[in-house]
Amino acid sequence: MVECFDNLIVPSSPFLVACFIHQCETLWALAIPNRLLYRIGLQASYYPTPIVNRRTRDPVYSSFSDTTVLKVFTDFRNWSYRMLRVHGSTLDLQDDESRLVIPLWAKSDLKNLVESNRNMIAFALDFNADADSHLVCEQDATGSYRTQVFTTGVTARKVTGASFIIVDGALKSGDVPLSVSVVEDGIAIRLRADAMIAFAEALIAGEDYRLESNTMKFSLEWRNIAPRGSIGELVSPIDQSSLLVI
């Protein structure tokens, strides 16, 4: 994240910042935690999410999940399956181009995902530090969802991030090879069947991919991004206990 810790006493080793959530928000923390963090950030007007908890804040989501597009990829009732989160992956939305970036070390995860379903590929994305804005999903009192754009405060947005991506091969048009649409706080990309086959093969092989039409562009880039620090480093500086023990 990009929160400012200036003038704060912080550990020299990696550390975690707790986020207080309501009981009704728990399923979103389990299914797609970044969605919840960005929505709390929008509520607090602090991009991308606050480091100070306000205990009296109102819930930003209810436990109603029947109308979200994510129910296709996550079992919100029994948690028998859930959407894969690919750490280090980001999506740049800039003008007429959507650029998907995946770290090379995530190749095996993507290969397994593609081999489980080559017709529809979906996964959650990581925080995009290069973006100056982010798609945020709001839920109203009826349980319906709408999209907002949360910015860092810049007047002219250049790059917008997303929380997840869905790519399928169900586009029927013979003239247009792809369509791109915003869905909640994610992006849905629909490809022709032949383009979907090529995209799936690029994911399996760890190769770059690019597709263009007269109005839009979609690209996949594999980058040699350094993995995050070892989980073993996340220990309390006070008693050396693991910070990941629930």
Q: Sheet with the most strands?
A: 4 strands, mixed
Which spans have pLDDT < 50 for at least 5 consecutive residues?
A: none
The name of the CATH superfamily reads: Domain of unknown function (DUF3480), N-terminal subdomain
Helix content: 10-25%
Integer tally of domains = 1
First and last CA, distance: 22 Å
Classify the oligomer. Answer: single chain
How many helical stretches? 4
| Alpha-beta classification | alpha/beta
- Overall mean pLDDT score? 91
Share in β-strands: 15-25%
The count of β-strands is 11
The string of secondary-structure elements, in order, is HHEEHEEEEEEEHEE
CATH topology: Gyrase A, domain 2
If strands are numbered along the chain, what order do they take across the biggest sheet?
1-2-11-10
Can you offer a commentary on this structure?
- Pfam families: SARA_C.
- This is DUF3480 domain-containing protein.
- One of its GO terms (cellular component) is early endosome membrane.
- With 246 residues, the protein is an alpha/beta fold.
- The protein has one domain: Domain of unknown function (DUF3480), N-terminal subdomain (Gyrase A, domain 2), CATH 3.30.1360.220.
- Helices cover 17% and strands 25% of the residues.
- It is built from four helices and eleven strands, in the order H-H-E-E-H-E-E-E-E-E-E-E-H-E-E.
- Strands 1-2-11-10 form a four-stranded mixed beta sheet, covered by helices on one side. It has a four-stranded mixed beta sheet with strand order 3-7-9-8.
- A hairpin with a 2-residue loop joins strand 1 and strand 2 (97-103).
- Helix 3 (107-116) packs antiparallel against helix 4.
- The protein is globular.
- The two termini are 22 Å apart.
- The mean pLDDT is 91.
